[in-house]
From TrEMBL:
Similarity comment: family membership: Belongs to the cytidine and deoxycytidylate deaminase family.
Entry keyword Phosphoprotein: no
Cofactor(s) recorded in Swiss-Prot or TrEMBL: Zn(2+)
CMP/dCMP-type deaminase domain boundaries: 21-158
Alphabetical keyword list: Hydrolase, Metal-binding, Zinc
EC nos: 3.5.4.5
PROSITE patterns: CYT_DCMP_DEAMINASES_1, CYT_DCMP_DEAMINASES_2
GO BP: nucleobase-containing small molecule metabolic process; pyrimidine-containing compound metabolic process
Identification of the protein by name: Cytidine deaminase
Reaction equation(s) it catalyzes: cytidine + H2O + H(+) = uridine + NH4(+); 2'-deoxycytidine + H2O + H(+) = 2'-deoxyuridine + NH4(+)
Function: This enzyme scavenges exogenous and endogenous cytidine and 2'-deoxycytidine for UMP synthesis.
Amino acid sequence: MREIQINTVLHVYTGLDELPNKVAQLFEKAREARGKAYAPYSNFTVGAAILLDNGEIITGSNQENASFPSGLCAERTAIYYAGAQFPSNLIKAMAIVAGSKNHKTTTPIPPCGACRQAIAEYEIKQNQPIEIYFMGEEGEIVKSNSLKNLLPLVFDKNVL
Ligand code: THU
């Protein structure tokens, strides 16, 4: 038997003013996108904004469905659009804002497992890290320098 230890490094910021302007702008877009979420079932709205290497910003919000599993998270709405419309551009960063309509969300909300898997696909495809930033409606912001930090033991094309 041998033990594997997995360490990860995240950076926590107290507010947007601690972050570079371009990241604060990305969060502004994510917040706008969150306002367009369609989440009548969970009342939990999420906005994601992606920065591409050409300066383009792609946004997405969660889109729910009466058939619950048919809905899609904000992060995948955004990243699949980026992949479909800008297949040759590098994805530099993603900012995520999330919160409940029922109470104030003050803790950073990380992307769900399925979204991490989807983001991982693009990070591996482009062989360049994607910075991931996430927060609640207010409060601290968490930064991961790469999706890899959020999904150790990733299932990727190398195992196929
Ligand atoms: N949701 C996201 O948009 N992103 C995540 O990473 C986690 C969850 C959405 C899906 C659903 O519409 C609502 O939040 C509650 O799960």
